[in-house]
User: Which sequence fits this backbone?
């Protein structure tokens, strides 16, 4: 039977793997790793009553404003890249490029806010080895920040290479889908960190 | 461009994510004024809201909704499993 | 007759050794696991927060066991060499990536040195535990830091392998192997920060370092083995060896269709 619709325009009930199938080993692996890290964080938090006090005191010194601002930035950037992907599927390269640039700006904003936050913490004398809470706070957020930086690099690659006239080509769309999935991964890992490190009472 | 931004389905997901985030932020800051809620339950509620957001990102933004069953099982299974394991720490320790 | 290198002949010449090298990774993972966990019983590892006296006592009490683990470690560590030489060989000959192959091999050699040094230093520490406890403490620290320095060498290996596999259109190593390598690298990032802490999840006996990264390292070796075996099978298929079992019969060369 002839294929009626191209790879880039599919019906809603047709199932397909976004990006390259093997790539999902990486995504699921990252999810598993961060899931384990969340567990470790909570175990340390509740291990002894003294630990709970240290963690609660440490949490109170964090700025929820910066955390919330970062969450909004990442959520918005996720929305933008979804739109960019849709535009690319429709063959609308220039619009797609604008959306990916907006995504990039939001990601860059995240990095700036994070740097401000670190600078503020370091100025107030909270360092990597201040206590158990700050050890985990710095390491987890630095690891996440490394993911953001990797994601930004991938976004630059997208802006440079993937929004040309033939952006509907299935291979090209697969690359955009892969980077978009990675960017959503960065987003959802931050949601977890924000909930556990900043919001818990 | 406008038509894409106003795409109802995706915009609703984004607005829902922002709404859940705001609710979580409000609960975290002002939830303790309700005398009937203690800190542990509030924390559990916040964890559930966080995982709800994660599920929304996975399901709608990552397009796991349209992914093959095995991938759906892995990704959304991870969300559920991780949520349950995090919540169970509250009871074990 | 002038000697002309023929890639197919070269491959067939060493085909059996290639398969043995590839399976060696499983043996390395299994062997180190047995040595480390059952012979040495270094689980959980000595706490970095212990005083030197406590540590010296630990080494005195477990002396025989740790010495046996040291010997066992030296007996299994060499299995690392053929596996990563094979990976380099495949990268160079079948992906045309000689530079990445050499970088990978360099990383593997350094990693091997650190693995040897780790086993050597726990042996040194256990050899005369009645000495001044502070020296025992230093030797113990040396052993664990050498173990954690494999992180950096493994990372350069994984990056080299990843770049080659993902860029290439050929599929000799399976594609999932490349993506697994990136994941291993990101996971290994946590191990880079071990020197900063004496307690908590990132000290050298921490949940995110010891309990997460030692299994990750084992998984990494096993995946390298599995992917190498798959790569050899793919090469076999390309040059027309239909029978997929390993055989040492060199007359097979006659059945090769070029």
Assistant:
């Amino acid at each position: 039977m002839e294929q009626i619709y191209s790879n880039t325009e599919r019906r809603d009930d047709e199932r397909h793997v976004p990006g390259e199938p093997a790539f999902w080993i990486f995504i699921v692996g990252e999810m598993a790793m961060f899931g384990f890290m969340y567990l470790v964080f909570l175990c340390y938090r509740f291990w002894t009553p003294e630990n709970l006090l240290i963690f609660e005191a440490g949490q109170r010194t964090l700025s929820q404003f910066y955390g919330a601002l970062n969450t909004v930035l990442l959520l918005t950037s996720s929305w933008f890249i979804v739109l960019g992907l849709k535009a690319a599927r429709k063959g609308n390269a220039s619009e797609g490029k604008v959306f990916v640039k907006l995504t990039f700006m939001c990601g860059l904003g995240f990095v700036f806010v994070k740097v401000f936050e670190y600078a503020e913490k370091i100025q107030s004398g909270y360092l990597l080895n201040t206590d158990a809470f700050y050890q985990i706070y710095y390491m987890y957020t630095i690891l996440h920040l490394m993911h953001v930086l990797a994601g930004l690099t991938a976004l630059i690659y997208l802006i440079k290479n993937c929004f040309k006239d033939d952006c509907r080509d299935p291979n090209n769309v697969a690359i955009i889908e892969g980077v978009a999935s990675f960017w959503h991964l960065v987003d959802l890992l931050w949601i977890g960190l924000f909930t556990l490190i900043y919001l818990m009472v | 461009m406008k038509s894409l931004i106003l795409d109802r389905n995706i915009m609703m997901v984004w607005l829902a994510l922002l709404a859940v985030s705001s609710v979580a932020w409000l609960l975290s800051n002002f939830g303790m004024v309700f005398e009937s809620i203690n800190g542990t339950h509030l924390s559990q509620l916040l964890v559930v809201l966080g995982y709800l957001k994660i599920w929304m990102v996975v399901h709608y933004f990552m397009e796991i909704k349209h992914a093959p069953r095995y991938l759906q099982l892995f990704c959304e299974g991870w969300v559920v499993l991780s949520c349950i394991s995090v919540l169970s720490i509250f009871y074990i320790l | 007759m002038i000697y002309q290198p023929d890639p197919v002949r070269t491959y067939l010449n060493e085909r059996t050794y290639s398969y043995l090298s590839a399976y060696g990774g499983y043996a390395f993972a299994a062997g180190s696991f047995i040595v480390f966990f059952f012979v040495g019983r270094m689980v959980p590892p000595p706490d970095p927060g212990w005083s030197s006296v406590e540590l010296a006592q630990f080494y005195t009490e477990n002396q025989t066991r740790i010495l046996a683990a040291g010997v066992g470690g030296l007996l299994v560590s060499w299995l690392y060499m053929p596996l990563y030489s094979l990976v380099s060989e495949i990268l160079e000959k079948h992906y045309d990536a000689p530079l990445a192959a050499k970088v990978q091999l360099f990383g593997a050699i350094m990693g091997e040195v650190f693995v040897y040094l780790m086993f050597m230093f726990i042996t040194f520490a256990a050899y005369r535990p009645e000495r001044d406890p502070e020296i025992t403490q230093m030797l113990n620290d040396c052993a664990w830091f050498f173990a954690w320095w494999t992180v950096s060498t493994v990372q350069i290996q994984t990056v080299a392998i990843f770049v080659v596999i993902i860029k290439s259109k050929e599929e000799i190593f399976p594609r999932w192997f490349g993506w697994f390598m990136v994941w291993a690298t990101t996971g290994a990032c946590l191990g880079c920060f071990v020197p900063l802490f004496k307690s908590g999840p990132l000290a050298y006996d921490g949940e995110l370092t010891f309990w997460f990264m030692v299994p990750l390292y084992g998984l990494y070796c096993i995946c390298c083995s599995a992917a190498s075996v798959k790569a050899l099978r793919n090469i076999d298929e390309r040059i027309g060896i239909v029978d997929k079992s390993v055989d040492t019969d060199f007359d097979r060369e006659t059945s090769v269709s070029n």
About this structure: Chain A touches chain B through 50 residues (CB under 8 Å). The two ends of chain A are 59 Å apart (CA to CA). The domain at 66-199 of chain A is CATH 1.20.120.80 (Four Helix Bundle (Hemerythrin (Met), subunit A)).
